[in-house]
Every structure is written in structure tokens, then in C-alpha cells.
Amino acid sequence: MKIFLRLRNVYHEANLGELEMGTILEFFQAFQYQYMQRAFISAIVIGVVCSIIGVFVLLRRLIFLGQAIAHSAFAGAALAILTGIDPILTIIGFSVVSAVGIGYVNQKKLMNNEVIIGIVFAFFMALAILFIGLHNEYSSDINSILFGNILLVNLADMILLIVFSVVILLLVFAIKKELFFMTFDSQQAQVSGVPVSILSYIFLIAVSLTISVSLKAIGAILVFAMIVTPAAAAYQWTFKINIMILLSTIFGVFSAIFGLFFSYILDLPSGSTIVILITAVFVISFLASPKRRSAKKDQLECPFCKDYLPGPCEECGGDCDLGIPHTHEEERIIISTKNLPEKEPTIHEHMEDVTQ
Amino acid sequence: MSGKSNNVVKEIDTIKETNKPIICLHDVVVAYQSNVAIFDINLDIYRNEFVGICGPNGSGKSTLLKSIIGAVEPLKGSVKILGEEVSKSGNLHGLRKKFGYLPQMSDIDRNFPALVKDVVGMGLYSKIGLFRNLNKSDYEKIRQALEIVELEQYGDRPIGHLSGGQQQKVMIARGIVNNPDILFLDEPTSALDFKVARNIMNLIKKIHDETDLTIILVSHDIDFIKNNCSRALCMNRRIVWDGNPKDREFEQIVNNVFLK
Description:
Chain A is mainly alpha-helical. Helix content of chain A is about 70%, strand content about 5%. The C terminus of chain A is likely disordered.
């Protein structure tokens, strides 16, 4: 409710152009303060590292694994608050343990992936609640870890974030090809000499480190949006992995910077502003996606088999011996109802590749 | 085993004189937990052979293949490839550079961000190191491999947009782009309809005829094995037949095994 009131105030202020300029100026003036500089740098670094690692998380379908890691990191943070030890140690410890544990069960095929992730997820959440309960007094630290505040990032946090990000990115780019191969076809990657099991552990550890160091700025609940959403938005635009990585980074950094900007001038929670922005980027990408558009445009109904199938006729450029506009897909030829011949052409059979 | 005709024995003898076996299995037993999957496997495969392996479901065809490529560890016995022990070899990684492998068809997401040439390029990853990307000569190899499978104009198209048969041809291109010594095919056409499957099989035959590749094919297509392979194995948890598939006895054995 408070936020709505605030938003309404801002809206009224915005009507008076001067004041709006004033708030924007205020944002830039704030850069003289170190906390603002740190927030800005952290936002960019998180935008880069989360969105790059996110591409592989998305393609390897590890989205819920990441969610489980984020919540075990929260349990780690709660333990640190309870015991007073350095939170980063317990955060990294908990998230790496859960990631490697799930990875092990997954690799040995002991049970379905979803089962173990569900169990670990709930267990670490229970641990977190237990630690918070044991810590009798209310601590604002818990709030800040759950929801994050990029303006509270201190120098040590920032250096840690930068160092880990550099290491993670070097690691990911070192094994990029192999990760890509494993993502595409893990069994075959193994047969061709890619050390699949070691690399998937390395990757899981990289994901948990990314989450651990981003936790303070974005918060345990929202950190995963920074990993999944930019990558999902980038996925809508391209068929090339390198371009997907690049786009994902651009989206991630864009929403981190503008999220910080809006959260500052509108006085909103930083984590949620960033996540709302990146979600907007995703929605726009999804609606404008060339992949979706092209699929829709080319989708014609076969008048005989009533199958909807995409793809223009790239094999013959639209004129095989059929003599009417049509498309090919897998084993079928698709003719638009507009061009429907008087009777079923004999060539229209459910046969194999027409070019052969 | 006694079914080898004199001709075949002679043929195999001449190969033996000129060649050492490229793959050599001795008394191999593979078990999953307490179930013995295959046992009593003694097998020598020579360069440029085209071996077809058939057998009913659960007869251990795929297990045999997996034990050769080192994907499962035998309980007992030794597997040697190019003179090197597979199971104990720390050099499995190095050995695998000499393999090409074509798995069963799998579904590919229509929007997966990979172009056909990227997928073929994966076959070269084991030869280039970390941090490196494919260079110009690699792309030339990719183009040649696509030419062999007759898909040279498809290099820049997303892999998900190709038909099932075309995707499997791309996988063949990936299997051979590395210029391997041995190509393993595990039921490469099981998800495809008959006509497309034949098309793929003929392509494999063509590749075998034009190169000195050793091909080991697991397939249910007994007609194809009979007409094209230089050697057939019939499996029923052990090798029940090993010889020339054109032999009349092969058909009887196959009928026996499949109808039992």
C-alpha cells in the first residue's frame, strides 16, 4: 500500500517536469557517494555474470535446481546470523553442498531429478526457518538477505563479487564449447571424450558461487530471476549460442542499471525493481520474438490431414512439381486452403523427405 | 560359430594377415548390479570391416557397444582398441578422439540455439583445446562432412528446423567430421520410418565404401545387414553367430533367436 501511495506521489511529481528532472539529477548527484558507486558497479557485475551463466542454466534445464541452490544459500545466511560467523562462508558452503549433492543424485540416476530437488529445496527452507526461530530477536539482516538491498553492498562484498565473477566467467568461457555440447547431447559428448561428469560438477559449483555472491544485492528470493529471465528473453531472439550469450548480458546489465535508477528515484526496493524490469524485457522479447512470429506466419493447415505445420518450403523455394504454393515439414507437404486444388493431388502422401 | 563357410574363413584369414585387430574383446562379461547382461564375449574386429550387430531386445547389443567405447566397465575380461586397454586406460579420453558415435534419435527442441554447422562442429571439440574456437580449416572440414551427407546447403539453418531424417544425417556428419578410425552406430534409425531409415542406411554404406572407416552398427534391420555388412553378429546375451551375413545359416540362426 505504501508503495502505491509513493508511486502516486511520484506520478504527481512527474507531471511537474522540473521535479522529474530534479529526481533524475539527484540520481546522478548521488554518485558522489561511495555506496551509490558500489551499487552501480555491483549491478553491472551481477547483470553480466548472472545472465551469462543463466544461458547454460536455461539450456541445461536446471532452472529449479538453481532455485533450490538459492534457498539453501538463504539457509546458510540464516545460520551465519545465528552463529555470528562470516555469512559468505556459510552461504557458499550450503549452496555448494546442495548443488553437488543434487548433481550427484542426478548423475547416478538414483531418482528423478524433480524429486530430489523438491526434497532439498524444502529441507533447506526448513533449516533456514529453524535458524531464524532459534535466533530469538528479530534481525534486519534476515530481511536484507531475503529481499536484498543493492545500496547496502559494502566494499568487501563488492570486491568479493568482482573476484568471484571474474573467476566464474573465466571458468565458463574455458569450458563453453564443452558445456554447449553437453547441453545439446550429454551422452554423445561423453563418448566423444568430453569429461561430462567433472564438467557438470564444475558448472553446478559455478552456479552456486554466482548465487552466493549476488545474494546480498538481489536477495535470496529474487536472485534466480537474474539468472533465468535475461537468458529466457535472449532465447527468443536467436539461433546462435554466442549471440544468445551477448543478448542475455545486454538484457541483464540493462535491467540492473535501470532497475537501480528507478529504485533510487522512486524509492522502491532495488531487487524487485530490477526483476520487474527484466521481466518486462522478457515479455517484450516473447511478444516480438522472430522465432514465434515466423512460426505463426508460416503455419498453414494441411487441408487433408489437418495438421498445423511450420516452415516455408526451403527445399524447393516453393515450386516443386506440385505446381501450387506449399510448404514442407518432415514427411508432409502442406498446402494452404487458399491454393487448394480441386481434388487431392496424388503427390500429397504422407511420405518421406520430398527432396530425396 | 561353426557356420562360417570356407570362403569367409579364407576372407577373414587374408584380412588377419595384413592387419592386426582394431578392436579386441577377450572373455568379456558385463553385469548390471546382479544381472549378467552379456558374457563369454570373444571378438576381434579388423580395419575396414562393416559389422552389423542384431538380436532381440535385451540381448545385450547396446551393452556390447557401450563396453567397447568404455561407457560401461566390464566385470571381467579385457577390451582393447587399437592395442590399448579401454577399461584400465587413463587414455580413454585420447582413444575417444578416434571414435565417431551416432546415438539413437532424440528429440531436439525446435528453437534450440544451434545451427547445423555448430552441431557438426561438436565432433571436433575433442581435438581443439579449452578457450579455443573453431577456425577456418575446421569449418572447411565441417563443410566437407555435410557434403558427404548431402546437406551442404543446410549449414546455416537451425538444427531444430530440419526433419528427423535430416537431423540424423547431421549426426552422421558429426560422427565423421573428426576423421575417426571407427564409427559406432547404435540403432541410428529406430525412430524413423522405413523409407527414411533406408536412405540413412544407404548413406552409411556409401561412407563405408568410400573410406577405410571401420563401422560397427547395431540395428534391427536384418535385411540391410544381410545385403550390406561384411560381417554379422547375432547376440543373445552372448554371440550366437559371427560370420558372413550372406550365409544361409545366418538367417536360420536369426529366426531361431528372434522367435524363441
